[in-house]
Amino acid sequence: MEKFPSDFVWGYATASYQIEGAANEGGRGPSIWDTFCKVPGNIRDGSNGDIATDSYHRYKEDVALLKSYGVRAYRFSLSWSRIIPLGGRQDPVNQEGVAFYRSLIEELLKNDITPYVTLYHWDLPQGLHDRYGGWLNKEEIVQDYVNYAKICFTAFGDLVQNWITHNEPWCVSCLGYQKGVFAPGHKSNTEPWIVAHNLILAHAFTVKLYRDDFKAVQKGQIGITLDFHWPIPYDETPENVEAVKRATDFKLGEFADPIYKGYYPARVKAVIGDRLPEFTAEELAVVKGSSDFFGFNTYTSQIIQDGGDDETNGYVKVGHTRADGTQLGTEAHCSWLQSYPPGFRSLLNYLWKTYEKPIYVTENGFAVKNENVLPLEGVVLDTDRIDYFDGYANAMLQAVVEDGVPVKGYFGWSLLDNFEWADGYETRFGVTYVDYKTQKRTPKQSSQFLKKVCVAHPVFVPLDPHTFISLQWFPEHIAA
Ligand code: PNW
């Protein structure tokens, strides 16, 4: 009989643009997402983050929710343009923005909740994009990012000991600069590789700054969060097996290999050629080893086939339908997500074997189709989300206990329903239902399920790895 280690960190995650609102308040400057949302057609329901879940004003209520859910950690991101409205190293700091985040952090600590702070979750100051092309301009953006990080370490580092530089750089470079479905909406076959390169450098020089100037006193850890979904070959043909390796190198290795091993993957170089920038020897010395842990977000597994025209995925076709026509799992309210817990266990094992760093799952969650508060009972019965968390928590427990993978923490996405980027407000990932007209928050059943998981550190019941019986930990739920 085994259980999660007693120091295992349970928390929830959010991101500034998705929850804060108050876009034109408190001295905040615009970000590229404010601009992107204004272009008709970019956001499915035509919405934006102007109000979102109004967490700029309601942060105390949100912290009370975290407390009531029994978690001891909260991962949130800072809005760069709330701290430096124009973004640059010569631009003024907005003390009101600094004070806001200090209040939030103090409120968390008062409630015994440890902050995990992401510096960059996609909301680049518009000022930097306008001034010099933002992430495209290596000389400028690396210095401005490091300056921004320095202001944050100085302002909050006495209270914060867990720092994450970027959230999901693949989404920034590929969805923002190749596919054009995220801000700033560029479609290019050269820009994503430049942006990826500059994101890595900004991350690495920030980590160097923290280690050189802050770590000795503040005693924190710092790393990056990548995103990856476990890839499964469509069949055992050599092309599809090779396609899985290529997909892994393009999506994960493109960032993880330089940061943890010191080089770009050979498969990426072979395809991208001289469109992939090179690191100088001095840069590489800073990049290699620039993350104290392996932070990653994962939601699903994918069936991979050779072919297609999507360069950022490494020319593979991505789906959820097996060769025999069956589906991997339950589909979420977004087509890219199906539940498949065994893939999560495999992924945790793969990351540990490949990169040999302690792991934080910094996001994991599920969007249930067409959710509502039941009018009579006043509750949200999100059974599919409970099944999802049940399966994924079990898979993680197996990875930790049976396979010996050092997973240190797990953050559910998300504390609240929120602005789901190009999907707008239709797609709900929260364990708390938000009525966007009134901003009323209603805990969903899944929040109570995860509360039992994290408060009880439940005893592990070994399962067949391909059978994740719903709710096996808490039989009383089965009756409900
Ligand atoms: C992550 N995809 O983004 C982000 O870190 C969160 O801000 C976001 O709300 C969450 O996952 C849910 O989507 C992703 O298209 C965005 O594969 C898109 C994809 C994956 C993750």
- Number of E strands: 13
Task: Name the ligand types.
Answer: 4-nitrophenyl beta-D-glucopyranoside
**Overall mean pLDDT:** 94
Shape: globular
Q: Helical content, roughly?
A: 40-55%
Quaternary organisation of the protein chains: single chain
Distance between the termini: 27 Å
Q: How many discrete domains?
A: 1
Organism: Postia placenta MAD-698-R-SB12
Catalytic activity: Hydrolysis of terminal, non-reducing beta-D-glucosyl residues with release of beta-D-glucose
Active site: 168, 363
Function: Plays an important role in cellulose degradation. Shows hydrolytic activity against several glycosidic compounds.
State the gist of this model.
The chain is an alpha/beta fold and 480 residues long.
Tell me what you see in this structure.
There is one protein chain. The protein is an alpha/beta fold. It has one domain (9-228, 340-467): Glycosidases (TIM Barrel), CATH 3.20.20.80. The protein has 16 helices and 13 strands. The radius of gyration is 21 Å and the shape is globular. Bound molecules: 4-nitrophenyl beta-D-glucopyranoside. The site of 4-nitrophenyl beta-D-glucopyranoside has 12 residues, from loops.
Observed structural traits:
480 residues, Glyco_hydro_1_AS, eight-stranded parallel β-barrel, binds 4-nitrophenyl beta-D-glucopyranoside, three-stranded mixed sheet, 14% strand, alpha/beta, TIM Barrel, cellulose degradation, disordered C terminus, Glyco_hydro_1
